[in-house]
Amino acid sequence: MKPDLERLTRDNIVDFIGSIFERRGGEEYLGEPVTMGEHMLQGATIAEQNDQPEEIIVGALLHDIGHFTSEFGTFSMDDTEDRHHEDAGAEVLERFFPPVITDCCRYHVAAKRYLCATKPDYFDRLSEASVHSLNLQGGPMTSDEVAEFEKNPNLKQIIAVRYLDEAGKRAGMETPDYWHFAPMVQRMVDLHCGPAALER
């Protein structure tokens, strides 16, 4: 069921995302050896362990949120067309988060296509599910698409989150839960919207 996005505010968005992790985090992740929640928590945890900036940690945590919010449902290995989960997620995030966070969500699929076009060894990192979705998403970028993509001011952060996306697929990896990262998520909301207390 698609959430009622009109009811989301700067006051409740962090808790709402937490409820998504709690209600749906255990769903299968594209045939990978981790659940959806584990995948996103692993990316954020790896970023935190490597002292990445909070925008990268939160970007990794939220990059696949569209798998939960999309009215078209989640990707499966039986799909024959792309479901554009990156756009569904960005639609939710852009109202509450700085552009860098939204871009890490909106363009993490494009980043896969970009890296496959510009770094031939990147393709070898992809899981079977990622290869399948790559084919549905247009395959490696053309040279014109590469040139256009490189104009994005948040390119460095988008690519960093893309690498974390591939890394966050480790069976049995222990991570904190979403609420460990919630203060960071709130700081990103406050950075974009201003402290929630100012509206009360």
Characteristics:
Hypothetical protein af1432, 56% helix, 200 residues, mainly alpha
Give the topology:
Blueprint: H1 13-24, H2 36-49, H3 54-62, H4 66-69, H5 85-93, H6 99-106, H7 108-118, H8 128-136, H9 143-149, H10 155-167, H11 178-193
Structure description:
The protein is mainly α and 200 residues long. It has one domain (8-199): Hypothetical protein af1432. Helices cover 56% and strands 0% of the residues. It is built from 11 helices and no strands. α5 (85-93) runs antiparallel to α6, α6 (99-106) crosses α10 and α7 packs across α10 (155-167). The radius of gyration is 16 Å and the shape is globular. The relative contact order is 0.19.
The number of helices is 11
The ordered string of helix (H) and strand (E) elements is HHHHHHHHHHH
Overall structural domain count: 1
Largest sheet: none
Report helical residue fraction.
55-70%
What integer is the average pLDDT?
86
Spans of at least 5 consecutive residues with low confidence: 71-83
CATH superfamily: Hypothetical protein af1432
Q: Estimate what percentage of residues fall within beta strands.
A: under 5%
Instruction: Kindly state the number of beta strands.
Output: 0
CATH architecture descriptor text = Orthogonal Bundle
Shape: globular
